[in-house]
Structure formats: C-alpha cells, structure tokens
Amino acid sequence: MTTTEVQGGTNGLGPGRVLRPRAKVLPEHARSHNRSLVLQTLYRSGRLSRADLARETGLTRVTVSDLVAELLAEGLVVELGQRESARPGKPAVLLDIDRGAHQIVGVDLSDHDRFRGAVMDLDGAILARAEVMLADDEGGSAATGETAAAKVDALVDRLVAAATAPILGLGVGSPGVVDLSGTILTAPNLGWKDLPLQRRLASRTGLPVVVANDANVAALAEHTYGDAAGDMMLIRIGHGIGAGLLVAGALVYGSHYAAGEIGQVMVGTDLGLDATYSRDQVLEHWLSVPQLQRGIQAAHASGNDATPVLREAGQRLGIALAPVVGALNLSEIVLSGPTELLDGPLAEATVHTLRNRTMAENHADLSLRMTTQGQDIVLRGAAVLVLSGQLGVS
C-alpha cells in the first residue's frame, strides 16, 4: 500500500477482511494474497526454508521461490544461512522477515490527559517513547479541537525523528468513531468532528498512515501479541468505554463505524421499561474510570467498603454484554484498563451476571480475563495496523 492509497482510500482493514490469510485464492487475487501468505507464515514462524514455506502455505515451490526473490529484493526478507542437517545434499537456506530493517511509529490518543507514542520494531517491542500533555500547565484545561490536533502533529514529528531505521508506517489509535479512511467522525472529549487525521499525517510525514478507533486497535494487539484464541470482544475502560470485536478472524465495524460503542448504551431498567435515553443510565455512568474512582472515594470517605461499587459496575457491564455474547456466541471477553479496578470483584460480578442472563449450555466455556498487554496495548495495536496495512500480516 502506498502513501497515496492510504490518503485516498481505506486503511487496509476493511469489513470482513480476515487478518491472517491461510490458504490460496482465485488467480485474479493470487499475487497479493500469496505474498501476504508467505510474509504471514514467516512472521509467525520464522527461520523457514523455501521448501518449508511451500509445505506450510500449500503454494508450489516455483511460486514460493518467485515471491521470495521479490521480497529479498525489497529488503523485507533476509537469508539467515544454511540449516544444519545430517541429510545428504545441499543444506536448505533459512529465511525470515528482516525484523531490523524497518521500524514502526505508533500513537495512542486515548488517555484523558496526554497523547503517547513509541517507535517499535516489527515484533512490537518498544524502542523509544515520547508523550505530550494535553494541558499546557498543571491544573489547566486539556487541549481540544485544532490545538489538540497540533499536539498530535508535534508528537509525530518527535517520534519520526527518533526512528533509527526506515519507517514502515505510522499507526494511530484514537477515541471516538473513526471511518475506514482514517477520518475521526466524532471524538467529543477531544472536540473533533470530521477530522481527516490519516490524510493530515500522511501529508505531513510522507509515510503510510493508518488511523483507527482505539478499542479496535487494542483488540488487534491482543489478537497478534496476546493470548486471544478465537472470536473475542475487548472492552477498553478508561475515561470512557469502548469495545473492539473480532468475529471469524475479522474486525467488526458496523454500518456507521460505531460497532463497540457500548459505553452509551442504557443498562438496566432503573427508570422503568418505557424510559427514554438518559446519559445518567448509560454504562459509562457506572463503569468509566473517573466514575469508579469517585464511587470508591465516596465509599471510603463514609467509612464503607468499596466492593459494592465495583460489583455494581460489573453487573451493569454484564447486562450490556449478555445480548452480545448471546447473539454471537463469543468464547472470550478481554478487559483492558486499570487492573486494580477491573480485576477482582468487578470481573467476578460481570461473569456471574453473564452466566445468569445467557443459556449456560451455550456459553459454558466463556472466559473473561484481563489483557496481557498492559498500558501499551494501543501502541502495540498501532504497530499491527501498519503490519496489516503494509505487509498483510498480524
């Protein structure tokens, strides 16, 4: 994917696109698909010969040799030397993606008080970090609108300058609703509406750029670098609440790119069955980090245990998730956010509520766990955006 294609089209992660190609396709699509298939196999396994690649992918040896020659010439694949072998004949030459030839810039715009970024290698390891505060002075108001966008520009400039190898691309995880062209349709907390951030950064840097919703980006990180095993919903809990959904190996976007915006869903029937939409009854009212912290502080100030606050938040999350789990028969829910708040009574209450509100025999193997990626989950997912968009691997 060229920079021009990124600026004018989608981000390469369109609806229904399976993240990891596994088999051959029709001739008219074969070249690019088979190229991604070879790169994906090397990325996940590494140190394979041409014959190994042919066996793993099901491609002919001639096709593999042709593709490998192309990838070697582009500097994406490197020969590692001959494999030690007791068999007679010439030893096979081992291949791998050249993991040190390129670096990736990732940016996380989801924190409420700062933008964070990193330079990473192709395996998602962080090589350098940078951040910019949203407020210019301690206690000052956080930047919004064009002022916040200018802070993104400045952060990206610092990260690009910090790279020590050619940059494969720039990935950005942003709060709000983001379409497939990388335009942020709405991000209320940042005062953004119809901001073409992908095109803006591509024009500024001359690099391939991919911008996506931060919860979707976090789901990609768990898929690639974590322990995600199948269909999965990742719930990202911070200043607000969002979710990334992977079904049949592909991200789910929704008709208006707002799939996973569960934070604004009314939960429970506190106001009666005929109640209309109220911001005081949406999931974020109980589950966002600021709300949880306020509830815990109030409990402690009154000399009470804060566990009921966490349990009620977990129950409300279970109420919101039960229809999704029931409709999609999900096998895994992953929580991303402050471990000290989410892991324990809150998670336990969520699972209990889910099991009470769905048919047990259909969801007996449902698991709910914390992410394995920690606070860098969006940064590492931004690396996956670039890997998927540029190389077709994840």
Automatic annotation (TrEMBL):
It comes from Leifsonia virtsii. This is ROK family transcriptional regulator. InterPro entries: ATPase_NBD, HTH_CRP, HTH_MarR-typ, ROK, WH-like_DNA-bd_sf, WH_DNA-bd_sf. Pfam families: MarR_2 (PF12802), ROK (PF00480). PANTHER family: BIFUNCTIONAL UDP-N-ACETYLGLUCOSAMINE 2-EPIMERASE_N-ACETYLMANNOSAMINE KINASE, ROK (REPRESSOR, ORF, KINASE) FAMILY. Residues 36-96 form the HTH crp-type domain. The lineage of its organism: Bacteria, Bacillati, Actinomycetota, Actinomycetes, Micrococcales. Belongs to the ROK (NagC/XylR) family. It comes from the Bacteria.
